[in-house]
Specification:
With 226 residues, the protein is of the alpha+beta class. The chain contains 11 helices and 7 strands. It has a 5-stranded mixed β-sheet with strand order 5-4-3-6-7.
Length: 226
């Protein structure tokens, strides 16, 4: 069985000196890059990853984590008490792949086959804020927004032409948004009116609604490729 596994892994390699080919050797397996995406904003438990990647089985997730760990991209550790649970996180080198993932997303969003109505995970939505942010649009703006997707908390802030979008609680946000990542994506990228999403119960906004609308104004979907 061990020989069979080694042979199978070897057959999947490109045997090409190009570093791009080697990158695909490391993270080109199905689901591997999405596992990395879900770890970009911090450590996650195995169950958290399963919940965010609903089409991924436990067996395949285990295989991908083992492969990424063997490649030096992911590591696991145990959180100190009182949590005392095992989590997975990207290594320092693994985190260096963020610009690659964001650039790939910016490229692929122009595909005529891209369907923005499919489900978003909270992390993928926060990373999309980073990927599509244009500093020129944000000059002179300053605000912070807290997002609550179920039990998960995130925050996004714009100041001095820069954006931060990360996991965690916001201390004194201008607005708090409750709902689903897909509903927020509909507002930001689909330009669905906020009033319509509120009427459907898809989004609830507390505080300065104008701050959320200013965030939406920063984003414009690029034209599709010919």
């Amino acid at each position: 069985m061990e020989l069979e596994n080694i042979t199978k892994q070897t057959s999947r390699r490109y045997d090409d000196a190009c570093a791009t080919a080697h990158a695909l050797d490391l993270i080109g397996e199905r689901w591997a890059m999405l596992v990395m995406r879900e770890l970009m904003l911090g450590p996650r438990r195995f169950s958290d990853l399963r919940a965010s990647l609903s089409g991924l089985s436990a067996n395949v997730l285990t295989q991908r984590l083992e492969g990424l760990e063997a490649a030096g991209v992911v590591r696991r550790r145990k959180l100190p008490p009182p949590a005392s649970v095992q989590v997975y996180e990207l290594t320092e080198w693994g985190l260096e792949a963020e610009p690659v993932l964001l650039a790939l997303g910016r490229w692929a969003v122009r595909s005529p086959q891209h369907d923005p109505t499919l489900p978003f995970s909270p992390v993928s939505l926060m990373l999309s804020l980073r990927a599509k942010f244009e500093a020129a649009r944000a000059q002179g703006l300053a605000f912070e927004i807290a997002f609550r997707f179920g039990e998960e908390a995130f925050r996004a802030a714009v100041k001095d032409g820069a954006l931060t979008a990360e996991r965690g609680e916001a201390e004194a946000p201008d607005a708090e948004v409750f709902g689903s990542p897909s509903a927020l994506a509909a507002l930001l990228y689909g330009k669905v009116p906020l009033e319509a999403l509120e009427a459907e119960g898809a989004l609830t906004v507390h505080g300065d609604r104008a701050a959320l609308l200013r965030l939406a104004d920063l984003y414009e979907m690029p034209p599709k490729a010919g």
